[in-house]
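We close this part of the discussion by returning to an individual protein. In the encoding step, the backbone of a single protein was reduced to a row of integers, each denoting a local shape. The sequence in question and its structure tokens are set out directly beneath this paragraph.
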Amino acid sequence: MDFLEIFQSITGNVWIYGGSFLLVLGILVFVHEWGHYIVARLCGIRVETFSIGFGHEIFGFNDRHGTRWKISLVPLGGYVKLFGDVDPASFKKTDKVKDTQQSAPRPMTAAEKQQAFFAKPVWQRTLVVFAGPAINYIFAIVLLAGLFMAYGQPVTPPVAAAIVKGSSADKAGFQPHDRVLSIDGKPVDSFEDIRRAMLIALDQEKQFVIERDGQQIKITATPEREQMKDRFGFTQSRGKLGLVGPNFGIDATAITAVNGKVLGEKQEITRALDRRLGQRFEITVGSGENVDVYIIRPLPAANAGLADAKAETYGVLQIAPVSENAVIHHNILSALMHGVGEAWNISADTLEAVWQMITGTRPATELGGIIRIGALAGDMAQQGIVALILFTALLSINLGLINLFPIPLLDGGHLVFYAFEAVLGRPIPEPVQEYAFRFGLAFLVCLMVFANLNDIVQLLL
């Protein structure tokens, strides 16, 4: 898809792409800032402003506690301004107040100072700052748990239905019907666990424990690096092992050769396949440049109607040794536990991907910005509400995690300063904090510019 087609696709669905992006972002910003807000209130801190967006106010109102709730012009974030802070980022503090816009600043009274953020003990300030990222995680876990309870959790057995010939799995000695038990000592419960492990395995040797014919075997394999490009042109690197999942059936008409011998009509293909049921052999699927060769061992019991022209399954080769996906239905406790597990796995994978970018293992061009997030949000919205909720949960986890990075201006940067204050017994000198926050602002601006330029360049190329 070239740039013109992409442009027409997005502009033709502007309400879907733009609306879903703003909806998801608005919800997540509200959740994040509400975490800061509610903990601040519980700590007796006055909240002056709760804003979704930055810049000029579009709509707003004051509540009975004196907080100004508003929606601002630039919808790419938000903030909570606490009493005693000069700016929303808690960059500077002041013990002066103005009763009206025209009045001169006066010193805070003792009662007012008790409501100021900077006057609270360090542990309370830490809780207020930490609450934003924490509630992003809680929100994502609740979303995932709700989906697990409402729709169940699809689980594909971690069994190889086929091996891609010449792949890393083939070279390492994997065989059809091998069941993967663990990767680098981490238990594997589903084929999705294998996909996730391979997604971030770039040029890294992996230790597999598999089960074959009732015996456990250790296999060492290094997945091949593969560049994937979505329909918008955004690229992503991942490791390709070469295992084919069990929920995989093949139409005989898509098979062009068996053991390298080119075949013609469907009847000839089904007879050739039927003669080899229970054996290990190769099939070639596709033609031209899109050709894949698979090593398979289809079972006779699963292919009783393969060569029977009167059977419903005529011409469909089932290569998996196990049944299709199972769906696990969870109760509240089980769903929450699995939600926590998913949040942990997503965070670990994100951190590893970031580290790969820092060390140069993964290209920094994979860092996406607003354009890529908007495109993904629009795609998820078109796939349905479940996909959009999953995307929202994933983005919420990433928002919480990124805000915990120890970068000045982010919540994690504040937490680092509070940790030093707790250890030293006094705050970091204001000049040091000021220079650190300026560095943090410059770094984040450069990072945002770089990420969005990545998106634009990849769309144009």
